[in-house]
């Protein structure tokens, strides 16, 4: 033995014969193999289901963490407002907030819900709060646990009409706004020309 691997037989130019070393021998035709396409349908379906389950779990975890980090504000909110005024005259709303929970970073008053009191009035007295025109709100500062604040907001109506106004209170903690369960005050007001 020469230690060389056996060489491939020589095949005729037309591919119908091969040389066995002494003569040309006809090639035997093998039955054609049927190639079946490999299906990944079951595997892909399984991976899709697992992916969907993972997404649902991630959303649930994020949602539950968000709600755990947002305590309900234990605030009592009462107030009163003028129900009839005239354009260019005097108008006012008063809100009293009692903090029965933990200290709040920034007591916020929103007057822009429903018919938007902020839009239809010029604020003449923000009641000790700072007017934030960009966010259409009054920022009233830190609010200690156990404290009560009464805020009198004065304004002058700009537009005549029948309006439904709403005042909402909130606490701003970083970039989150927290609201008490019952923090909105609503009233109807007629403003004459």
Architecture overview:
There is one protein chain. With 193 residues, the chain is an alpha+beta fold. It has a domain at 75-192: Sandwich (Immunoglobulin-like). Helices cover 17% and strands 41% of the residues. It is built from 2 helices and 14 strands; from the N terminus they run E-E-E-H-E-E-E-E-H-E-E-E-E-E-E-E. It has helices spanning 41-68, 117-120, and strands at residues 10-11, 17-19, 24-26, 75-81, 84-86, 91-99, 107-114, 121-125, 130-132, 137-139, 148-157, 161-173, 176-178, 185-192. The strands form 3 sheets. Strands 5, 7, 9, 10, 12, 13 and 14 form a 7-stranded mixed beta sheet that branches. A 4-stranded antiparallel beta sheet has the order 4-6-11-8. A hairpin with a 4-residue loop joins strand 9 (130-132) and strand 10 (137-139). It is rod-shaped and about 120 Å long. The N and C termini lie far apart (119 Å). The relative contact order is 0.18. The mean pLDDT is 82.
Secondary structure blueprint with pairings:
Elements: E1 10-11, E2 17-19, E3 24-26, H1 41-68, E4 75-81, E5 84-86, E6 91-99, E7 107-114, H2 117-120, E8 121-125, E9 130-132, E10 137-139, E11 148-157, E12 161-173, E13 176-178, E14 185-192
Parallel strand pairs: 5-14
Antiparallel strand pairs: 1-2, 2-3, 4-6, 6-11, 7-10, 7-12, 8-11, 9-10, 12-13, 12-14
CATH architecture grouping of the domain at 75-192? Sandwich
By CATH, the superfamily of the domain at 75-192 comes out as Immunoglobulins
Helix content: 10-25%
Query: Which radius of gyration do the C-alpha atoms yield?
Result: 40 Å
User: What's the β-strand tally?
Assistant: 14
Low-confidence stretches: none
By DSSP (H or I, 4+ residues per run), the number of helices equals 2
Mean pLDDT: 82
Largest sheet: 7 strands, mixed
């Amino acid at each position: 033995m020469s230690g060389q691997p056996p060489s491939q037989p020589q095949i005729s130019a037309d591919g119908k014969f091969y040389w066995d070393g002494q003569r040309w021998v006809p090639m035997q035709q093998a039955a054609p193999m049927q190639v079946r396409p490999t299906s990944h349908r079951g595997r892909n379906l399984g991976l899709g289901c697992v992916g969907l389950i993972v997404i649902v779990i991630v959303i649930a975890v994020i949602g539950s963490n968000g709600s755990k980090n947002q305590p309900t504000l234990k605030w009592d909110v009462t107030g009163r407002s003028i129900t009839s005024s005239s354009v260019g005259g005097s108008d006012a709303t008063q809100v009293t907030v009692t903090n029965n929970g933990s200290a709040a970073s920034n007591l916020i008053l929103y007057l822009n819900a429903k018919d938007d009191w902020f839009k239809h009035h010029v604020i003449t007295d923000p009641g000790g709060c700072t007017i934030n025109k960009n966010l259409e709100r009054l920022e009233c500062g830190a609010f200690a646990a156990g404290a009560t604040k009464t805020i009198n907001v004065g304004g002058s109506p700009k537009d005549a009409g029948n309006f439904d106004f709403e005042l909402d209170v909130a606490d701003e903690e970083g970039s989150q706004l927290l609201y008490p369960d019952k923090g909105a005050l609503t009233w109807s007001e007629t403003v004459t020309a």
